[in-house]
Design a protein that fits this description.
Layout: E1 3-7, H1 11-23, E2 27-31, H2 37-43, E3 48-51, E4 54-55, E5 58-59, H3 60-68, E6 75-79, H4 84-92, E7 97-100, H5 105-123, E8 131-135, E9 138-143, E10 148-151, E11 154-155, H6 160-171, E12 176-178, H7 179-187, H8 194-209, E13 215-218, E14 222-225, E15 228-229
Parallel strand pairs: 1-2, 1-3, 3-6, 6-7
Antiparallel strand pairs: 4-5, 8-9, 8-15, 9-10, 10-11, 12-14, 13-14
């Protein structure tokens, strides 16, 4: 089973979360501070991170940005910071999911399972061929088997959730896909306000893809990947 890295400074929460994870058959590695976490990520010793934001020696948002510089490991924030601006910032720095305290342990486990399932599916999608698109003089190239995205020959880094959304939109190029469809097919859940989560992921994707408008908004309906297949 997968190894879960939990970064949490509250010992009661650490005990509860690790207990439930281990009951489900997962291995756990725990830290109560920022120091040492990146070393575990670099070694590839974990397959998913559960991360608090308020830590004694640093900030979870900053740590998430550092993790994203070296890894696309699935990352879930578990935090008492429950404002909409905090949730949006969490996704902007690279989170795949965001759970607010107090929380349901069962729901947390289901979200962990969904993230790991998405990641495994993305890594095993070796039946996709190398695909290329052109738009406004720019070239976008995806090799899903090797997990490589290039825009004008420059390799672009994506989180696992961004990969899932982009591949899904590309499979339906020039077709309008609703936010709710992206949620159900790519994020595997729906909750109040969750469509804003899709908007945040799309905004991050647009920034990373550069100037050409590869993903357009169809107001009142959803999003569309635009490109001429090569």
């Amino acid at each position: 089973m997968a190894c879960i890295l939990l970064v949490e400074d509250n010992p009661l929460i650490t005990e509860a979360v690790t207990g439930y994870l281990e009951l489900e058959g997962y291995k756990t590695v725990t830290f109560n501070k920022v120091r040492g976490v990146l070393d575990v990520i670099r070694r590839g010793a974990a397959e998913l991170v559960i991360l608090d934001i308020m830590l004694p020696d640093g900030n979870g948002f900053s740590l998430a940005k550092s993790i994203r510089e070296i890894s696309d490991i699935p990352l879930l924030f578990l935090t008492a910071k429950d404002s909409e601006s905090d949730r949006i910032l969490g996704f902007e720095v690279g989170a795949d999911d965001y759970v607010c305290k107090p929380f349901s342990t069962k729901e947390l486990i289901l979200r962990v399972q969904a993230l790991l399932k998405r990641t495994k599916h993305a890594q095993s999608s070796d039946d996709r061929q190398l695909k290329k698109w052109k738009r406004d003089g720019s070239m976008l190239e995806i090799d899903a088997e090797k997990h490589i995205l290039k825009v004008n020959d420059a390799e672009i880094y994506l989180t696992s959730t961004e990969w899932k959304i982009l591949l899904y939109l590309c499979d339906y190029e020039n077709q309008v896909i609703s936010r709710s469809k992206i949620l159900s097919e790519c994020l595997n859940y729906f909750f109040e306000g969750s469509e804003r989560t899709v908007d945040t992921h799309i905004a991050n994707l647009r920034t990373k893809l550069g100037g050409s408008d590869w993903i357009t908004t169809v107001r009142g309906f959803g999003y569309k990947f635009c490109g001429d297949s090569r």
